[in-house]
Amino acid sequence: MHHAYSLPSILPMHHAYSFPGIPPMHHAYSFPGILPMHHAFSFPSILPLQYIDTYSRFGPCLDRMPSVSQLYRHRALNKHHPVNSIYIDGRGNDRYDPAFSALLHLLAKESIHAKNPIKSLTIVDLDWRRLVDRSTCNAAFRSFSGIIYLRVKNIRCRVDELRSLILSFPNLAILDLQGVVFDEQERLTQPDGEQQYPKLSRLTITLDDNAVSVLDLFRTIVSPGQIYHLELKGADKIPGTVEVMHRIVSLSKAALSLGIGHINMGYFGYVRMPGPILQIAGLNNLTLTIALSFSYNYILAVRWWTEVFKALPAENNLRRLTIRLSGSWADAGLAIEGRLYNDWRALDGALCNPSVHLDSFVLETQMSDPENTGFKVQVWMENEGLRGVFKTYDAKQRFEFRNNWP
């Protein structure tokens, strides 16, 4: 023990290490890579505790710290310092470590042996094209069978690879997708035999230019009425093309509760009513967002929602509605003055339709200006834009106003 040394920080791999019971530094050993298994060493307790938690966050690039080689030897997921979530970050300029898949297999195996299965997996900025062996890595991801929460952001892979990843986790309940890019000319193949669905109850999708491909993926992953809450957002605004809108209408049938961001209706041009129309009769909770602005895109969005509520049949499950207004007073002031409020009055009439019988109506503002901006919008909505709705639900004490601002 007189040769013991402390390890105040994680050193780069080219530096030699000295550990308790190992000869002085001039005899210390250097491990430039992952050694064969019969030579590999495991030092589960040599790192200070503050570094153990960082091992749940790592990536395949050789220029990242801690490196895959360090992780392979020191293995954070052991019975002494268990974690139940990992965060994989693919950022980096160097090539991917060929032992990345082996590390994933090892961590999954050790977490199972320690009776502490990984339940949360986050994959960010990973490019499957840079993996040394894509099939081996896909198999390694599937070894984390206990995943309940999966978040995928800014990745590039094949369509079938993402589908296989999602379906690999039989207990998957929460899925969050954003910035997914599929390899060019890739098509989703239909599965053979009986379709197996994960236990998805919450699904969040951020839609961008690849919205069609991402939404198509879920035609074979979710079943009608399966999702408790579906959240559809836009990287900026949801691209309201005909192709995207048809898929949103189809996917929403799988949800009991739907939150949907502002839809950019500008793709339809100057038309009276862009379609197709969302079917909301099966929803019990709907949250919709409208970005106030002095633009025809904004008018089309209000008109589209008017048609949605006009089409609501008498027999429906909708009981809670939240209308979320975003923007600034500079935009909102122009949007609700002059002739533009006629479109809001049309929406007000649709919401007062006898088919709309809500237990709760919420108006929420998310304005980028000081606090009183939201109240200005509220006053205008009460007196002009949605005065029929306010009169109906305020009298029944079923109205709530929320003013949220940064």
What Rg do the Cα atoms give? 27 Å
Oligomeric organization of the protein chains: single chain
Spatial strand arrangement across the major sheet? 1-2-3-4-5-6-7-9-11-12-13-14
N-to-C terminal Cα separation, in Å?
Answer: 56 Å
Q: Main β-sheet: number of strands, strand sense, barrel status?
A: 12 strands, parallel
Low-confidence blocks of residues: 1-55
Taken as a percent bin, the fraction of beta residues is 15-25%
Fraction of residues in H or I helices? 25-40%
Topology as a string of helices (H) and strands (E):
HEHEHEHEHEEHEEHEEEHEHHEHHE
Compile the SSE list and pairings.
Elements: H1 49-52, E1 57-58, H2 68-74, E2 85-89, H3 100-113, E3 120-124, H4 134-142, E4 149-157, H5 159-167, E5 174-182, E6 202-207, H6 211-217, E7 227-234, E8 238-239, H7 242-252, E9 255-260, E10 263-264, E11 285-291, H8 296-310, E12 320-327, H9 329-335, H10 341-351, E13 360-367, H11 372-385, H12 387-395, E14 399-404
Parallel strand pairs: 1-2, 2-3, 3-4, 4-5, 5-6, 6-7, 7-9, 8-10, 9-11, 11-12, 12-13, 13-14
